[in-house]
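debug: dumping io for the single-chain case to check the tokenizer round-trip. Nothing else runs in this session.
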Amino acid sequence: MCLIRRFEEEAGRQYQRAKAGGFLHLAIGEEATIVGTTSVMREDDYLIGTYRTHGHALARGTPANEVMAELFGRETGTSGGRGGSMHIFDAERRFMGGYGIVGGNLPLAAGLGLASQYRDEDTVTVCMFGDGASNTGNFGETMNLAALWELPVVFLVENNLYGMGTALERHSAVTDLSQKAAGYGIDGERIDGMNVLEVRERVSAHIEQVREEGRPSLVEAFTYRYRGHSAADPEVYREKSEVEEWREKDPIETFIKLCLEDGVLGEEDVEAARREADGTVEEAVKFADESPEPALESLYEELYVVSETMGWYSVDERSPEPHRGELGEDAPEVARNLAESGAAHAEDESERQSREGVRE
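debug: decoded output
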């Protein structure tokens, strides 16, 4: 939890320095939900998230260097610098990615569950998504299929009380999100997402139940984000006093206090954990900053999964010999010549319009 907190604080600073591009969504305050969940998953279980998933990748074991490099858009990032903050991905550790579309990961989670079922594996998929995603059409459709096909998926709602800048009671007719799948026959439970031990205990129970019975379940983790929806969020929709009230329930400080009181950790252990997190994140920034950017000519590489049996994603009809649009390098010579001629014509037309503008 210390590592995730420190990493995200630094990610926010690097974003302000324009080192990290695109969008940035921080989960500061939600560490207990992330760590409590991932700590009880098997290595062969699948995890899939939304666009607030730096911590999810770190908790699954993805090196901080690679996550930070992805934020910086560098070759050494988890997706070669092509995904950025919202699309962290680590197939080796079965973290199946973050997704920029609200609710977009829900049907993908059903697909992962179907794959486990098809291969006769006892692996479980944990799908983590925000409260706003529970109002999307994808939610209802996925719950229906997951229940109908008895897919081994634990759907975990990270309810941080706001769908972007809209309070829960203003965007959801049913505010007890653990009950939202009851109409599909999926049992739900609400838990304290700020308490890492409660999350760990209850999510573990759900995972094992799903693993044994092969039926999906729904968990609502009641949590809170201390930062805005994104780095560009002015946070005009909530009072500062509300944020301060939730800061009193800080999941990291609460857990530290509990460990100290029970004698599980000493003050020196806590400081050592903080120093280790600081060192790891400082190294990650250095690594990302020194890593190379992807070559410009690689811009169009790996946009599609290309195989011998796949159909055409797109068709390029610029020549009498149409070819697959995703394989531009295989275009007939006549198509290349036409493309170059078209580009040259566009430049000539632009110059002509510019000259006419000057005369006018």
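debug: round-trip ok. The beta strands are 46-48, 125-130, 153-159, 162-163, 166-167, 188-192, 217-222, 315-316, 323-324.
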